[in-house]
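User: Please predict the structure of the protein below. I'd like the answer in structure-token form so I can feed it into my own downstream comparison script.

Assistant: Understood. Taking the following sequence of 97 residues as input:
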Amino acid sequence: MSFDFKRMLKYQRNVGDQDQKIRYGVGALACLISLFLGSIPLLLLGIALFASGYTRFCPLYAGMGRSTFSSCCGGQAKKADTHACCGGGEDKARQQS
């Protein structure tokens, strides 16, 4: 497996919905635990995880060429029947008529 540093510097969303929720939870938990333990590295790890969940970009995923992000509608539509790219919305109405 090769790691591409040039690809790591390009911003392209690569964190999916479920991955984002996990990063929020683990990041918040790491920050909370670091407050009780007084651990600066754990606090920085928690902030990094929370930030990567918020921006939906992980530089390590980018460098490895990995992505959990669904490109359909840019992740904006949640239901298949509310947008046209997945066969819902206007396209579905056109097919029925």
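That's the full token string. Residues 72-97 form one domain.
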